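2024-03-11 09:14:02 INFO receiving multi-entity request
2024-03-11 09:14:02 INFO entity count = two
2024-03-11 09:14:03 INFO echoing inputs for audit
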Amino acid sequence: SQQGEEDPQALSIQEGENATMNCSYKTSINNLQWYRQNSGRGLVHLILIRSNEREKHSGRLRVTLDTSKKSSSLLITASRAADTASYFCATARDTGRRALTFGSGTRLQVQP
Amino acid sequence: DARVTQTPRHKVTEMGQEVTMRCQPILGHNTVFWYRQTMMQGLELLAYFRNRAPLDDSGMPKDRFSAEMPDATLATLKIQPSEPRDSAVYFCAGNAGGPLDEQYFGPGTRLTVT
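2024-03-11 09:21:47 INFO inference complete, emitting structure
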């Protein structure tokens, strides 16, 4: 079963608006990562947040992590048409199999 | 501009045929991963290597799949014999750290088995 589940599955917004995607997971983690995938392309790493961090920023991206709720959110501010892509969270467990487990992704459509 | 390269980008083959996919990781990335992506299952880790040695292949069907790293610049994933259910996009990824660190993905090989 998936460790991380994104919500919503799909999101459509207008250019300039903010986009928020959520990820929930089941077991304790070492870190949580967000990746972007443009159609027909490989995944691109966006940001990594460690289990002892609560918030992290990178340009227009803001990631929060709540380990008590086992959830994370990715906020993209002032979205652009070029942000149209699928976004995946990936969890790195701190026990068990040493590997990233990817969620099913959120498809973001930014309308120009 | 360092990138992971994968060949071929697209492969259509008939059931029962052997398929070999190749990956060249970024120079210095000594941990290499193979993933499979489908609509139904999402992105699944098949296997990964560190310093060319297989560390985890628990996600790989052993009867028909095999993964190797003949040298530090080449990783291969072979399916023999291929089946229609193997149709997917296969990604190679790598990093200089380990399995819990950020990963750099290749563009993928889209495999269709008819």
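2024-03-11 09:21:48 INFO post-check: Chain B has one domain: 16-97.
2024-03-11 09:21:48 INFO post-check: The longest strand of chain B covers residues 42-50.
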